Amino acid sequence: MKFSITQENYTMVADVEVIGKDLLIKIIGGDTPHIGTVTTLTRTTDLETVRYPSHDGRLHKDDVLAIRIGKIIQSDLPGSCTITAGVHVNHISKKQIMVSAMMSKNLGEQIKNWLEKTEFNILEPVYYSDKENPQ
Q1: Rounded distance, CA 81 to CA 39, Å?
Q2: Alpha-helical runs (H) found in the chain
Q3: Pick from 4, 2, 21, 11: which is nearest to 125 by CA?
Q4: Domain assignment present for 36
Q5: 111 near 73, Cβ under 8 Å?
Q6: What residues contact 90, with CB distance under 8 A and at least 6 apart?
Q7: Alpha-carbon span 78 to 42, nearest angstrom
Q8: pLDDT of amino acid 123
Q9: Is residue 126 domain-resident?
């Protein structure tokens, strides 16, 4: 599934891939999409983020977008969720920075709405019990 929003002359996209009952969400947009951060979460665990260094050694700040989306969808997650985020707008304006929060909130709400309507009829994995061993 793809969700998108355009404001202030740039587009932000959330590309959601279902893997079993887990989600891989790629948040990209602007002039130079990339992977600046990776955020992980489940319905019952805290969000954790890794921030990669940018061209000048500072750490990317795309987790601001991913965390906003993650908090919106967390209660509806069917399994684990990994969110990569990388939105870069060349010579970004203050107004474009300001609307990015609302854009990510909108994407989170679009994904949440989709999650509420989607059935994840995935077979649960079968494990050996403590008394069993592979043969």
Answers
A1: 8
A2: 63-73, 94-117
A3: 21
A4: yes
A5: yes
A6: 30, 31, 32
A7: 8
A8: 86
A9: no
Q: Which pLDDT does position 111 carry in this prediction?
A: 98
Q: Is residue 28 part of a domain?
A: yes
User: What is the mean predicted confidence (pLDDT) over 54-75?
Assistant: 95
More reliable by pLDDT, 105 or 134:
105
Using pLDDT thresholds of 50, 70 and 90, give the confidence band for residue 122: confident
Per the rule left: phi > 0, alpha: psi between -120 and 50, beta: everything else, 82 is beta
Q: Are 55 and 48 in contact (CB under 8 A)?
A: no
132 belongs to a structural domain = no
What rounded mean pLDDT belongs to the chain? 96
Tell me the β-bridge partners of 20.
Answer: none
Q: Which residues pair with 123 in a beta bridge?
A: none
pLDDT given at position 40: 98
Strand order in the sheet with 22-30: 2-7, 10-19, 22-30, 81-88, 37-41, 48-51
The total of structural domains in the chain comes to 1
